[in-house]
Design goal:
48 helices; four-stranded antiparallel sheet; transcription
Length: 1274
């Protein structure tokens, strides 16, 4: 591992995208993204080909794309999809015109075979054409002559020339029956005989034997006699005699047997156990049917019992959903037919019917209902959701269901991952073995998959708009209320959902709101029928990650990385995967996903009792919000009313939060109940920084205390003496007694054994000691585990399955201290050895108390209010996130939440108190961690420079385009537009994201670009969505402020992955929540050693130096316009960081504004590039000088007209339009100066790598010292 990390990481390079204003942007950006128009065309093709919906239209689009945009659709699976569609059209839908379609198939095959369009043929290509020969060749009863068909001998020759195994051709998914595949074997055998390829005949014979006689896993169980069939005789063998002969029998060739065998051969691993795999398949395959059947069954039962009347039954979520479903599927049937009729009349209109026809209306109905119910309370909207998010989510769910149908149809047999070999993960042999196995597996999957295309956001929004609008039209509920005067029960039918608008941060926001009774039912009723399998754990080990979208669930398509509207990041990961640079990332995800879990029945029983009681206990939200509603006193003055409004707003928000928490807990409990007694797995993926997350969102070990308390390892191990000690330390940590030394924590548990036993045996009837813990549900589970161990015959031999944690101490600061060699910081975060654990949060809290005492003497109101009330919990989150770049606003909000939880302050005073305390805490941290601040500043400056850089080969092209735009605008007649200034043109060229590579080879691309929204009209409302396929210029400030925290997150993600891989190598069970690592109690000592070894190996590899070297390599030919860095603040920061610009004496004369950054070279070396020889630049400078002179003359003329000397001063008249505030005047002058400087500096660029500031000096702390620190992770 140490040697692996010492080597430079495997870099992934892609060109920087061009701005959309560039005339060549579309062509050059296509090297890594598909523009939205092309993507829409591909998605329409996909929808039209599905079930032969509209193949002629698909063919027209396909031919146009091949003609107009060659090279954009180089996917052999897409070509195969057309070959297959043409053959199927000739077979079924267009049999009366089959000559045309078969001719199209052979013509396209000939084009592919000739290599004219650079398509690499696959086994599926030949399978389709052999199928065409079987159906329409000379020996077929439906023979079609003169279609350009290629003979089987030529097909076989081509197959062999491309080194494609013939058994893969026979086993391809194209063949729907075993009989067809058997016929192809005969066809190829005959062709091989003609060509004299005896080895192919042998190979085909073995293939047929494998299909007929499959080596079952149950080889030692007596075989069941197979069904035999009469063997067909060849015509030459037919008897001429009349007597009857005894028929010969044979085992029929079975195509599925062959496919399973080939899968096993490809991976040399054992297939999944059939029973559990079948349950997982059923879970994913029949989710909508199962939910529909259950809803229908309950509705029928109530009708049979005579309870199906509004007076006799209370509203129930499931019965409402069934009612909506029955009405919605009828409405959708009608709506889709109407859309088809309209589209047939208007051919130029955007076609939506192909998309709506991909999934049956009954499934569309359930998808829409489930997604809308799932999104309730999301996006900060209580009892509702944002319209844009809802429409896109519903459209995406329909797309996912279609992809899942295709995946099920493919039926690819893919076994689970195997154990790591003797060479480990980090040796060259081990790494290459991972790469080879993944390439083989990925090719196997790709060959077996049908082609599909991704939908654009606009398409998703439009499809979602139709479905959601139909749901809102048909979904009704009946509400009942008692009249306050007459006590009469009144009922009314109301919409279940309604669309409205609300204002948020000055913007008008469309929202979909739930009827209050629906929202109430959602927090109380059974919600298992609203959960899609992609939101659930798996019953089998997840599929190994073989590529960006190949892994995880069996049928539900998920991505290995969570993207934030960044096609750039997706392209980098795809390219890195193709280059074999991310094998260890995929392997790490496989390790995390293969950890088996179970639901703790003991803890679940207690949770269920508390939940059903509706009480507030163990952080479970109560069924009825218990805080009293604020009351407005009679005769209240304005100040009292203001206070009341403020408190009422807080109370309303708290009530909404309680309801939202109830809904969340309801999901968790239902999922836990469903999987009681099962072994479950959590497939993982990573965010764009490389941090791993479980994909199921509702119940997982990364969730809150309840989720973690419900989960235990499925495998148990004997505690041993050390394990018993660690179990007790773990209990003390969960209770909150985690800042004492280990012996004191063990003694704490010994002192409370009576409380622990009481909690374990009488969790609700006893003293409830566990409820006072920081993490009550985990504490209860640990109490039960410790009680079971201590009451067993031999506690050290007790089989424990409870995960025990090792948590980092403010892990971000630990990484900063190691990077900078900061001895003082290292001591505060337990990198240095100490007798007791250091607590940086308490230390900062004490520093804040000292400042508060000083401010009280100065009469500070909030200092007096906060004195003596600063706890480590109040400042913890702010201290933790400061090194991740938290702003003052973020820090204030964090502290505000904690102050509200203490309930020691009036609602109206919390904001002011949190603002004051945030300022105090941030100042304390800055004084304490100076080493971290220096590195943070260096990272920020690097990001600011990178985000202002332009590729060197783009400069001349950009100058030419800028001049062309100026000339075009000057010639145009029409409305006058403000001329584009040079600094504006340069700003639009800022397209460079900060990209770096983690030590594991994962390329990280910061996705922060300025919003480039497009207006999409849906049937519900106009929505504005970002178009990720049309990149805009980067957000320089966001790129800079986010880089330090993202870089540190990528380091802690790398540390976690390294630890996961090493634990798998050592045979340890492993799970992680970012910087909290879990294993069995008996293995804690071994895992602790691994944690330290991986951290030392990571930081001994000179991480910052490697980052600096990568920047110099990645941005070697990038230039920064001097006009972009002439601002005083940036120039001053660069000077303080040690950055210098080398120039010649002549250049120094024209760069007076950069005098504090300039080093004059006597040797003639220079970092400055001047495009003095550029004709475009010379012409531009002349044009700009003329413009400036003309503007100056115009301004002077206006001034003389507005202020003639003879005009008398009139004191009683004042024109408001003529007045200019000092601030506006200063801004105008500043902008004029900026325009002038940008013109003067136009054409002058500095090399980015020359301007990068030197690395901060490293301190004297040696990372190897953590070996002696027992509290580094504890």
């Amino acid at each position: 591992m140490e040697n692996f990390l010492q080597n430079p990481p495997r870099y992934t390079f892609l060109p920087t995208p061009l701005p959309s204003i560039s005339s060549s942007a579309s062509a050059k950006n296509s090297s890594w993204l598909t523009d939205s128009a092309t993507q829409d065309s591909l998605a329409v093709i996909d929808a039209c080909l599905y079930q032969l919906f509209d193949v002629p239209r698909a063919k027209g689009i396909f031919d146009r794309l091949r003609r107009d945009t060659p090279g954009k659709i180089l996917d052999v699976r897409m070509y195969n999809a057309f070959l297959e569609a043409y053959v199927n059209m000739a077979t079924s839908k267009a049999a009366d015109n089959r000559e045309f379609w078969i001719e199209c198939a052979w013509e396209l095959f000939a084009t592919m075979e000739a290599g004219q369009e650079k398509i690499e043929l696959s086994a599926g290509t030949y399978s389709i054409m052999l199928k065409a020969w079987l159906r329409f060749g000379p020996d077929s009863p439906d023979h079609i002559p003169d279609t350009g068909a290629v003979r089987p001998t030529d097909i076989l020759t081509s197959i062999l020339s491309r080194d494609i195994p013939v058994e893969n051709v026979v086993a391809d998914r194209v063949f729907e029956t075993s009989e067809e595949a058997a016929e192809v074997i005969k066809l190829l055998s005959k062709a091989a005989a003609e060509l004299g390829h005896t080895e192919v005949i042998t190979q085909l014979g073995q293939t047929e034997a494998i299909g007929a006689h499959y080596d079952d896993i149950l080889h030692d169980v007596p075989e069941v006699m197979p069904v035999m069939r009469v063997k067909k005789k060849e015509p030459s063998e037919a008897s001429t005699e009349d007597e009857e002969q005894e028929p010969e029998y044979e085992v029929p060739f079975n195509l599925s047997n062959l496919r399973r065998h080939l899968s096993r051969v490809c991976f040399a691993r054992r297939v999944l156990p059939e029973d559990v795999a079948a349950r997982q398949k059923l879970l994913e395959d029949t989710v909508y049917e199962t939910a529909m059947d259950r809803l229908k069954h309950e509705s029928d039962m109530f009708e049979q019992l005579g309870l199906d009347t509004g007076h006799l039954r209370q509203p129930d979520l499931r019965r409402w959903m069934w009612d909506w479903h029955t009405k919605l599927q009828d409405r959708l049937n009608e709506e889709i037919q109407n859309i088809k009729l309209i589209e047939d009349k208007k051919e130029d209109r955007l076609q939506l019917s192909p998309y709506l026809s991909l999934v049956k209306p009954e499934r569309l109905s359930l998808i829409t209902i489930f997604e809308i119910m799932r999104l309730q309370g999301s996006g900060g909207v209580s009892e509702g959701m944002k319209t844009t998010r809802a429409l896109i989510a519903v459209g995406k769910a329909v797309e996912n269901e279609y992809k899942a149908q295709i995946c099920k149809k493919n039926n690819i047999d893919l076994p689970t991952i195997g154990r790591v070999g003797n060479n480990g993960y980090f040796s060259n042999l081990g790494y290459n073995s991972l790469l080879e196995r993944r390439i083989v597996a990925a090719r196997h999957m790709s060959d077996g998959e049908a082609w599909t295309a991704a939908w654009t956001q606009a398409t998703r929004a439009k499809i979602g708009g139709i479905l959601v609008e139909c749901l809102m039209d048909v979904a009704k509920v009946t509400r009942s209320a008692t009249h306050k005067v007459t006590n009469e029960v009144l009922t009314e039918v109301q919409p279940a959902f309604h669309h409205t608008y609300e204002h948020s941060r000055g913007q008008k926001l469309g929202v979909i709101r739930l009827n209050p009774v629906v929202s109430e039912r959602l927090s109380n009723d059974n919600v298992r029928d609203t959960i899609h399998p992609r939101h659930l754990p798996m019953l089998v080990k997840p599929k190994p990650w073989l590529g960006l979208k190949k892994g995880g669930y069996m049928f539900s398509e998920v991505s290995a990385m969570r993207f934030k509207e960044s096609v750039e990041q997706q392209s980098y990961l795809n390219h890195a995967s193709e280059l074999g640079n991310v094998e260890l990332v995929y392997a790490g995800l496989d390790v995390l996903g293969s950890t088996p879990w179970q639901i703790s029945r003991k803890v679940f029983d207690v949770v269920l009792k508390v939940w059903n009681s509706g009480e507030k206990l163990g952080k479970l939200p109560p069924a009825v919000f218990s805080d009293p509603e604020p009351v407005l006193p009679e005769g209240a003055d304005i100040k009292t009313r203001t206070t009341y409004i403020h408190r009422m707003k807080g109370w309303t928000q708290a009530k909404a939060n309680n309801h939202s928490d109830r809904c969340s807990v309801n999901y968790k409990i239902e999922i836990a109940r469903t999987f009681l007694g099962d072994t479950i797995y959590f497939p993982h993926n990573v965010d764009f920084r490389g941090r791993a997350y479980p994909i199921p969102p509702h119940l997982n070990h990364i969730g809150n205390d309840l989720s973690r308390g419900l989960l235990i390892f499925a495998e148990s191990k004997p505690l041993g003496e050390r394990g018993l000690r660690w179990l007790q330390i773990h209990l003390a940590n969960l209770y909150g007694y985690d800042k004492a030394n280990f012996d004191e924590r063990v003694q704490f548990v010994q002192d409370h054994l009576d409380d622990i036993f009481d909690s374990a045996t009488k969790p609700l009837e006893g003293r409830q000691w566990w409820t006072h813990a920081d993490d009550p549900w985990q504490c209860l589970g640990t109490c039960m585990e410790l009680h079971a161990a201590l009451t067993s015959e031999n506690p050290t031999e007790y089989q424990s399955c409870l995960p025990v944690h090792q948590d980092g101490t403010c892990n971000g600061l630990q990484h900063y201290a190691a990077l900078g060699g900061d001895s003082r910081g290292a001591q505060q975060v337990n990198l240095s050895a100490g007798e007791r654990p250091s607590d940086v949060y308490t230390y900062v809290g004490n520093m804040a108390e000292e400042i508060i005492k000083r401010d009280i003497a100065n009469g500070e109101k909030y200092a007096a209010m906060l004195q003596g009330k600063i706890t480590r919990k109040i400042v913890k989150q702010t201290v933790m996130t400061t090194v991740y770049g938290v702003t003052f606003i973020g820090a204030r909000e964090q502290i505000e939440r904690q102050l509200k939880l203490t309930k020691q302050f009036e609602e109206e005073e919390v904001w002011g108190a949190s603002a004051y305390l945030a300022k105090v805490v941030l100042s304390c941290i800055g004084d304490l961690f100076t080493g971290a601040k220096d590195i943070q500043l260096w990272l920020t400056l690097c990001a600011r420079l990178i985000s202002k850089a332009i590729p060197g080969d783009r400069i001349a092209e950009a100058l030419a385009e800028y001049r062309a735009r100026k000339n075009k605008k000057s010639k145009s007649r029409g409305r006058k537009k403000k001329p584009e200034q040079p600094h504006e043109f340069l700003r639009k060229e800022q397209m460079t994201s900060v990209v770096w590579t983690t030590p594991l080879g994962l390329p990280i691309v910061q996705p922060y670009r300025k919003p480039n929204r497009k207006q999409i009209v849906t049937s519900m409302q106009t929505v504005y969505i970002s178009d990720p396929n049309s990149p805009s210029e980067v957000n320089t400030m966001k790129q800079a402020s986010a880089f330090p925290p993202n870089f540190i997150h990528s380091l802690d993600a790398t540390h976690m992955m390294l630890t996961a891989l090493e634990c798998r190598t050592q045979g340890l069970t492993f799970a992680a929540v970012h910087d909290s690592y879990w294993t069995h109690a008996c293995d804690i000592d071994e895992m602790s050693g691994i944690i330290r070894d991986t951290f030392i190996a990571l930081h001994s590899s000179d991480v910052l130096k490697k980052l600096y070297d990568e920047f110099k390599e990645r941005y070697r030919n990038y230039k920064i316009p001097l006009a972009s860095i002439h601002s005083g603040v940036l120039a001053k920061a660069l000077k303080q960081a040690g950055a210098r610009i080398t120039v010649t004496p002549e250049q120094a004369k024209s760069l007076q504004s950069f005098s504090n950054l300039v080093d004059v070279s006597d040797t003639g070396d220079s970092s400055i590039q001047e495009n003095a020889d550029s004709a475009d630049l010379k012409a531009l400078l002349v044009d700009l000088a003329e413009e400036r002179e003309a503007a100056k003359l115009t301004q002077e003329s206006n001034n003389s007209e507005e202020h003639p000397e003879e005009e008398a001063e009139e004191e009683d008249e004042f024109e408001e339009d003529d007045w200019e505030s000092p601030r506006a005047k200063a801004a105008r002058l500043r902008k004029a100066n900026e325009d002038l400087q940008s013109i003067e500096l136009l054409g002058k660029f500095v090399n980015l790598v020359d301007l990068l500031p030197p690395l901060p000096k490293k301190g004297d702390f040696k990372v190897e010292a953590i070996k002696a620190s027992q509290y580094f992770f504890s």
